[in-house]
């Protein structure tokens, strides 16, 4: 195969990166996932210098992130009120910053490219997984679209999730893609991984305990541009009260900031009424609201009301620019109209909420992207619950992508996940990561069902990412005989 010219190689990288988004929700072409990273591997091997390899990785990443997280523009411009001429470049700049991670992988691969095809494939896969992991914590982290999410259930490779988590799956996908460059080697490896993953899917890592708990997950579908308007406040309170009253359950969940006011400022008789409604079956309600002091220290919180003593969980991993303003960027946020963008972070370690006779680990919106943080509540928590408001992102890829992330968290931990969202996607996910039921997006409704708490731990739930990091280290040791010989 002739060596493509530099422009052709860079264009191919850009298109391959954009195509990689098809492997994620809502397209769910998980079986296609090795191919975009096969294309990147082939292009990097043919790059003549580390600099050219870095540009190849950068263009791949740029295509990938522009196609996959363009909903950031929606949040900044459509709902954040930022002028399009500033929101557009800001979104592109963010995607370019994220593209630096595959650029780093490309440069490193070419700089120390080992001899031999198998060593090259291992080295490449380890680097791709490593930059996925680095992206999860540098500058507070943005692990959205980590490659391993493509293998959330129903992919048979999801069987590896309870062992090595999403970043371990990133390594397996990248390795599968690289080895497919020589299909006589790659196809048997991929078949073996699928078979092993399918076998691992048959293992019950955790055990259901106690009787099922009836749940009602409420999707208010409050338009984002109306959510914080004073004239909509009473209508919002009435809507949620009526939906709760019409759907009795032992555990009721409302979305993130469902009641868009500080809880101490809500009418006392209204809160008493919610508590009475929640207590009808000896149950409890968890609602998203604000706690703290207006103009002072305040939190994005979940508060429980009902038969159990009232408890509070406050979001600990905040979203840059959406929930706090990084140093030096006040001028940038002044161009937008994002209310309550200076939250304080709650404690990293918080006790699961004891509600409805179960321990529920609440996380709010973006927090469930961080698997190593979700397991802090284990093994005490038997149920995971996510309260979200993705109305900020409109009718985009964000909502199905977020649901896919939640399914991975359930598969990693062996815990069911309940999702109550404002506009979608409200869902019940079982302890194996399978989608049990979901409401249509952008409709007002209540998802009713039953869930059982689970006990026990998966290997990932016990150790988190150190298992993946050990696998990463082994891959690098097997791959690396430092040198620059090109095969």
Automatic annotation (TrEMBL):
Protein name, entry field: Apolipoprotein N-acyltransferase
Pfam families the UniProt entry points to: CN_hydrolase, LNT_N
Keywords (A to Z) from UniProt: Acyltransferase, Cell membrane, Lipoprotein, Membrane, Transferase, Transmembrane, Transmembrane helix
Regions crossing the membrane: 12-41, 53-74, 86-109, 121-145, 157-178, 185-203
Species name: Azonexus hydrophilus
Membrane topology: Multi-pass membrane protein
Molecular function terms, GO-annotated: N-acyltransferase activity
InterPro entries: Apolipo_AcylTrfase, C-N_Hydrolase, C-N_Hydrolase_sf, LNT_N
Pathway: Protein modification; lipoprotein biosynthesis (N-acyl transfer)
GO cellular component, one term: plasma membrane
């Amino acid at each position: 195969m002739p060596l493509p010219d530099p422009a052709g190689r860079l264009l191919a990288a850009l298109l391959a990166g954009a195509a990689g988004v098809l492997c994620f929700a809502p397209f769910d072409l998980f079986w296609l996932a090795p191919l975009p990273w096969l294309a990147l591997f082939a292009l990097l091997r043919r790059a003549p210098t580390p600099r050219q390899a870095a540009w190849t990785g950068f263009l791949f990443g740029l295509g990938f992130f522009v196609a996959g997280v363009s909903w950031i523009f929606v949040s900044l411009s459509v709902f954040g009120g930022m002028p399009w001429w500033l929101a557009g470049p800001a979104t592109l700049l963010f995607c370019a910053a994220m593209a630096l991670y595959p650029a780093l992988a490309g440069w490193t691969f070419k700089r120390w490219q080992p001899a031999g095809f198998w060593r090259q494939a291992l080295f490449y896969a380890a680097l791709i997984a490593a930059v996925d992991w680095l992206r999860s914590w540098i500058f507070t982290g943005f692990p959205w679209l980590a490659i391993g999410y493509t293998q959330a259930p129903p992919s048979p490779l999801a069987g590896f999730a309870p062992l090595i988590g999403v970043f371990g799956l990133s390594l397996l996908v990248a390795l599968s893609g690289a080895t497919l460059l020589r299909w006589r080697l790659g196809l048997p490896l991929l078949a073996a991984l699928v078979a092993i993953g399918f076998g691992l899917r048959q293992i019950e890592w955790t055990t259901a305990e106690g009787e099922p708990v009836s749940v009602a997950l409420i999707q208010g579908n409050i338009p984002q541009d109306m959510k914080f308007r004073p004239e909509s406040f009473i209508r919002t309170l009435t809507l949620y009260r009526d939906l709760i009253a019409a759907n009795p359950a032992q555990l009721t969940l409302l979305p993130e900031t469902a009641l868009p006011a500080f809880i101490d400022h809500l009418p006392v008789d209204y809160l008493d009424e919610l508590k009475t409604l929640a207590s009808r079956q000896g149950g409890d309600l968890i609602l998203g609201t604000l706690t703290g002091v207006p103009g002072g220290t305040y939190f994005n919180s979940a508060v429980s009301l009902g038969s159990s003593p009232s408890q509070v969980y406050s979001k600990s991993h905040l979203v840059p620019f959406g929930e706090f303003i990084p140093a030096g960027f006040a001028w940038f946020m002044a161009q937008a109209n994002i209310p309550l963008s200076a939250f304080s972070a709650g404690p990293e370690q918080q006790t699961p909420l004891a509600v409805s006779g179960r321990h529920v680990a609440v996380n709010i919106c973006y927090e469930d992207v961080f698997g190593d943080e979700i397991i802090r509540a284990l093994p005490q928590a038997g149920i995971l619950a996510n309260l979200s408001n993705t109305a900020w992102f409109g009718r985009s890829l964000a909502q199905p992508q977020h649901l896919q992330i939640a399914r991975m968290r359930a598969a990693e931990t062996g815990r069911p996940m309940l999702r109550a969202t404002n506009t979608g996607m409200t869902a019940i996910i079982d302890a194996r990561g399978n989608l049990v039921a979901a409401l249509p997006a952008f409709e007002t409704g209540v998802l009713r069902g039953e869930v059982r708490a689970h006990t026990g731990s998966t290997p990932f739930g016990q150790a988190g990412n150190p298992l993946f990091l050990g696998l990463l280290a082994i891959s690098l040791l097997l791959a690396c005989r430092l040198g620059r010989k090109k095969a």
